[in-house]
Amino acid sequence: MSCGDPHEIDCGQILNEVYLYLDLECSDDRRSVIKTHLDECSPCLREYGIEQEVKALVARCCGADRAPLELRDRLRAKITALVLETPSRELG
């Protein structure tokens, strides 16, 4: 995905790292880069908002349960594959 505006890092790459950002699983430097991109790019910010809502819903439904690592890896791979297969949506 790309919003058409020039950014230091491609929108697709940022969106691929949204879960790492949400889960605080990336370095402080990388978090800063992702936050700057989200602050500047409204299409990515909208996508990030959707991801954040899904994460909050799962947290509410599952409580403190933590999915096994293998399941998380499979879900992450499936979501990535779906994102790559999805035709570009109109950015407007």
Helical run tally: 5
CA gyration radius, whole angstroms: 14 Å
Largest sheet: none
The residue-averaged pLDDT reads: 78
Please report the total strand number as a whole number.
0
- Termini gap: 13 Å
- Low-confidence runs: none
Residues in β-strands, percent:
under 5%
Shape estimate: globular
Number of domains: 1
Report the order of strands and helices: HHHHH
Helix content: 55-70%
Task: Kindly name the structural category.
Answer: mainly alpha
Give a brief outline of the structure.
With 92 residues, this protein is an all-alpha fold. The protein has helices spanning 11-16, 18-22, 28-40, 42-62, 69-85.
Question: What does it look like?
Answer:
This protein has helices at 11-16, 18-22, 28-40, 42-62, 69-85. Helix 3 (28-40) packs across helix 4. It starts with 10 loop residues before the first helix and ends in a 7-residue tail after the last helix. It is 67% helix and 0% strand.
Give a topology summary:
Blueprint: H1 11-16, H2 18-22, H3 28-40, H4 42-62, H5 69-85
Features:
single chain, 92 residues, mainly alpha, 5 helices
